[in-house]
Design brief:
This protein is α/β, with parallel strands linked by helices. Helices cover 41% and strands 17% of the residues. The protein has helices spanning 34-48, 58-63, 65-73, 88-111, 130-138, 194-199, 202-214, 239-246, 249-262, 268-279; strands at 2-12, 53-56, 77-80, 117-118, 143-144, 165-169, 172-176, 181-184, 187-190, 220-223, 263-266. Strands 1, 2, 3, 10 and 11 form a five-stranded parallel sheet that branches.
Length: 284
């Protein structure tokens, strides 16, 4: 057992909630299965006494308030994943603020405590979007976990700082905690999460985690409930998107079971003091 803590984060959204596949207006026509994978993950974590941070879409929280409450009662952190699963640059500042406040209010009403964490849908934040960070600070958020320090055809900011750091906006500062990456042959690659967690061999994910732990760096992984529900209906998608969506689904349950057993998973909230120490007095 590796006793160093590893942060596990969960983006609570369903299999059809992608802006490239199904428009928000059509969501209600699809089978709702978010609790299938969510319950499977909660059982895994409970068996080994682990905790995690669950970033809820407000849309999901409204339809499954019992899921939000059960996550909080199990000792996990509840955080915001906005209301709609749409990139912020597409919806703009006004709608971003509307969805942010709406989701924060829904979650806080359900769990009775302050929500302090945020992650953007599709990692749709870059350093040149100050209005996002200003909005987070104005609404009482203490940390963000949205700046993905690589660039894919869908998302990311390759120039972003890959370790926890402070961001100054609007006269205040917010702690940025990015998903973990590792440099291989001069190129930065994700350690594990989403497509990468499903596609990588388990040994490669362990290698990335252990390498970071040995060097004293933090580890932040992420997963989606639908990825632990390989029986969900298949969507009619373009070939590339269909492959990205389906790769490794049948293997992820076994991988997650092994990772939960091996590593001391915890939440972002429980790790804030450690991340603040890593960030120190520096500001990006």
């Amino acid at each position: 057992m590796n006793c160093q803590p590893v942060v596990l984060t969960v983006d609570v959204e369903d299999y059809f909630m992608s802006p490239e596949s199904i428009a928000f207006e059509q969501w209600s026509s699809f089978e709702d299965r978010v609790q299938v994978g969510l319950n499977r993950l909660l059982d895994m974590l409970s068996t080994c006494g682990r905790t995690a941070t669950f970033f809820f879409l407000g849309y999901v929280a409204e339809r499954h308030p019992e899921a939000v409450i059960s996550v909080a009662k199990a000792g996990h952190e509840v955080a915001v994943h906005h209301y709609w699963h749409q990139p912020y640059e597409q919806i703009g500042k006004a709608r971003f603020l509307e969805g942010l406040r709406r989701t924060k209010g829904i979650l806080e009403d359900l769990i009775g405590t302050k929500v302090i964490g945020h992650r953007a849908p599709m990692w749709s934040v870059r350093r040149d979007m100050p209005w996002v960070f200003e909005g987070l600070l104005e609404n009482g958020f203490q940390y963000d976990s949205s700046l993905f320090p690589i660039r894919t055809y869908l998302y990311g900011d390759a120039g972003a700082e890959p370790e926890p750091h402070w961001l100054n906006f609007g006269g205040g500062r917010i702690l940025e905690v990015p998903p973990s990456t590792q440099t291989v042959f001069g190129r930065r690659i994700p350690v594990g999460g989403g497509f990468f967690l499903r596609a990588y061999p388990l040994g490669m994910t362990r290698w990335g985690i252990n390498r970071r732990l040995r060097s004293g760096r933090s580890v932040v992984l992420y997963v989606h409930p639908w990825e632990l529900d390989p029986g969900h209906p298949r969507l009619q998608l373009p070939t590339k998107l269909a492959w990205i969506h389906a790769v490794g689904l049948n293997r992820l349950g076994r991988k997650m079971t092994e990772l939960v057993k091996q590593y001391e998973f915890t939440s972002l909230r429980n790790s804030l003091s450690r991340f603040e120490a890593i960030a120190g007095g520096t500001n990006a």
